[in-house]
């Protein structure tokens, strides 16, 4: 337990990953996943104090997660241990058509998280609170908890960041649109990806997309464009912040890394354009290794790339 409340809190589901070692092989490598957990780790590696708000099972997978968070200096005070529900897991298999994800998360501990479980004191003290479309989609109870969390945090002065992270296996598009529209009304920083927002808005133009996002309430939109960088918009200014050229091998979790680095720099006092340049560098470096967590860079490596 930390002596003070974390600056940045994230809500959502963390999972154990089993990634097929090679196409057609029966061996799977164990790793970690969960978009908002990845976000927390990325922010922590940039020097921010972070905490995760969720639930895990009282099982070996849950203990693997708590050990990983402890090693990453992510505060787990606000992770509830559910003795009657499991930690979620997913499998990644590889074939000629790319990789496929299969999830075992129905009835998971995180999906049973409720408003009553929220750490109100920590939410009131946070400088930023982060959630994603997955945080809202895993269950009705978790969705209610996420909305209660950001309402409480904002009423106490925190900024709310939101990554659309659309997963249509979790909910139908009409419901995703309606719920995310409501989330955007309570969002300060929107961190969408191109594929998500083209599906959500029906637009295929950068300016039309960020206009649609800004109209709902955020004061900053950082539209992630992969290796091209990010299109950053505020009500008064917008421009492309270029990405960094690296030898990429795996983009898993790069968007989560961008978000964590971006919000860490906003909390540290950067303007959105400087934060995006830094986050682009962090996300680029995260693609030079395999997996969602292991290749997330620390601040020193990011600063070296930013400074050229």
Structure, described:
Helix content is 39%, strand content 23%. By secondary structure, the protein is of the alpha/beta class. The chain has a single domain, classed as Ribokinase (UDP-N-acetylmuramoyl-L-alanine:D-glutamate ligase). Strands 1, 4, 5, 6, 9, 10, 11, 12, 13 and 14 form a 10-stranded mixed β-sheet that branches. Strands 3-2-7-8 form a 4-stranded mixed β-sheet. Strand 13 and strand 14 form a beta hairpin. The termini are far apart. One of its GO terms (cellular component) is cytosol. It comes from Burkholderia ambifaria (strain MC40-6). InterPro entries: PfkB_Carbo_kinase (IPR050306), PfkB_dom (IPR011611), Ribokinase-like (IPR029056).
Write the layout of secondary structure elements.
Elements (H helix, E strand, L loop, with lengths): L7 E4 L3 E6 L7 E6 L1 H11 L4 E8 L2 H12 L2 E2 L3 E4 L6 E7 L2 E7 L15 H6 L2 E5 H5 L2 H16 L3 E5 L9 H13 L3 E2 L3 H8 L4 H11 L3 E5 L4 E5 L4 E5 L11 H15 L3 H15 L12 H9 L1
Parallel strand pairs: 1-4, 1-9, 2-7, 4-5, 4-6, 9-10, 10-11, 11-12
Antiparallel strand pairs: 2-3, 7-8, 12-13, 13-14
Helix pairs in contact: 1-9, 9-10, 10-11
Outline of this structure?
Helices cover 39% and strands 23% of the residues. It contains eleven helices and 14 strands.
